[in-house]
Amino acid sequence: MDFKISSVSLDQIETGDHTFKITTNTEITELALSISAIGLLQPPVLKQSVRDFTVVCGFRRIAVCEDLGITRIPARILNSDFSKIGCAQIAISDNSFQRSLNVVEQSRAYALIRKFAERSSDWLKILESTGLACSQTAMERIIPVAGMSESLQDAILEGSIALPVALHINRLEHDAAVSLCSFFRQITTGLNIQRELLELISEISIRDDIPIARLIEHADIAEIIGNSDFPVPQKVQHLRMMLKTKRYPELSKVEASYNQKIKTLKLNPRIQIQPPRFFEGKSYRLSLTVDSRRQLKSLQSELERLVHHPNLLPE
């Protein structure tokens, strides 16, 4: 890397240009303590332009110096004709060789390489030089994250929205994406439940011709989310039941009726009966959990109640 070290005034640095920004870390407390105590040990890398300097790496270091009231800092200056892909490699390497990059940072790195590499055949070599995973599949899957809204990226980082769900939300129109992002950030739950809720909301929206944003704002959903007496798992369970009832009203009635019949039987927990999926078909699954013949014999009378129930099972 051909550069010179010079003292640069902070007002000459264009900190609003985030072209080469990789890090998502905004915490500066420890860094501020270090710089205030012993100075800037690792000068940022800047690229010379006509009037000012573009930041290649060192965004947090520069931000700390601004907060500390430092007006001039040492910097490694690249010539104005230094290639953009070269700048990208420096920016990525400055981060990837210090720590593992999170999904958003990986996406930014992959997007930079795709943007500035002259030929796709160069990608593998560049990926290897920066410490990124050399997987075309991973790159294609992760790259869209860099173009997501800041709130959706934050949701991925905090774990409230899983990457597959975030990718789906990102393909929706703006209002729907914003509403769904806010919705999931309030009810942090696992991937499978996120997928289930997203599917239910999307299908209800299509069937009833209601925009997703308006559907999520509906009073019954807002009431559950806003209920401070419900812990999050309970909110999620209520939302699942409510949305499922909206999506499948007739099925929900049949399920409720069936569950009530099972409840009135007060069966021993060692007896489990499972209806066919969506009550489509006639095959019910009955399972018994016993440790001995004595236990099995003790369940005989309850099995008889099942056999003679007038309308629990088909003839």
Structure description:
The protein has 315 residues and is α/β, with parallel strands linked by helices. It has three domains: 3-131, Alpha-Beta Complex (Conserved hypothetical protein from pyrococcus furiosus pfu- 392566-001, ParB domain); 148-247, no CATH class; 265-308, no CATH class. The chain is built from 16 helices and seven strands. The chain has helices at residues 29-38, 59-67, 84-96, 103-116, 123-130, 136-142, 150-158, 163-170, 174-185, 191-208, 212-216, 219-226, 232-247, 249-265, 293-298, 300-308; strands at 3-9, 13-14, 45-48, 53-57, 72-78, 271-274, 285-288. The strands form two sheets. Strands 1-5-3-4-2 form a five-stranded mixed sheet. A two-stranded antiparallel sheet has the order 6-7. The longest helix has 18 residues, at 191-208. The radius of gyration is 29 Å and the shape is elongated.
Shape: elongated
Count of alpha/pi helices: 16
H/E element order: EEHEEHEHHHHHHHHHHHHEEHH
Roughly what fraction of the amino acids lie in strands?
5-15%
Q: Could you describe the largest sheet, including whether it forms a barrel?
A: 5 strands, mixed
Q: Rg, please?
A: 29 Å
User: Which CATH C-level class of the largest domain is it?
Assistant: Alpha Beta
End-to-end distance, in Å? Answer: 82 Å
- Return residue spans where pLDDT drops below 50 for at least 5 consecutive residues: none
